[in-house]
Amino acid sequence: MIKVEIVKLPTLDSKCIKLFAMGNNYCGELGFGYNVEEMKYPRHVEGLADFIVKINCGSQHVAALTRDGKVITWGCNDEGALGRVTKSEDPNTTDENVLAFTQGLDDAVIVKVICGINKQLTFINYGSTSHIKIANINIEENHVLIIMTDGYLYTFGYIDSN
């Protein structure tokens, strides 16, 4: 373990943002459904106005944090990256490219969301009752870095030949 400087704990932001997207929309990751293959200029993503405070992108999916601490996802759901069941697993649910809330954390107040390739991590604020106190997380394709409030850095994931 390596001791590092403690960073400020994340808090839930209250200032809402307007989301604009552009680029490749192969999996619906821009938030426009499958009707748009590519967006060359920024376009407003409808349906998110007035309640999104933070956003993070994976390689083919997006997670948006709402002002009340919930997460909305859309795009490719490979390996369950959207945090919800989609039509490819259950025909009675929504498509991957439809903006929808994640599942399983209904009672939690999420203060930060981080996406990587086919994965999503969330920070949940449990206050002083939590035994594990995480200050920050970063994820990449094959590994995760976690900085704890006590200054320790933890890493896990795939170890290449080096």
UniProtKB/TrEMBL annotation:
Pfam families: RCC1_2. InterPro entries: Ran_GTPase-activating, RCC1/BLIP-II, Reg_chr_condens. Gene3D superfamilies: Regulator of chromosome condensation 1/beta-lactamase-inhibitor protein II (2.130.10.30). RCC repeats lie at residues 17-68, 69-126. PROSITE patterns: RCC1_1, RCC1_3. This is 4717_t:CDS:1. It comes from Gigaspora margarita.
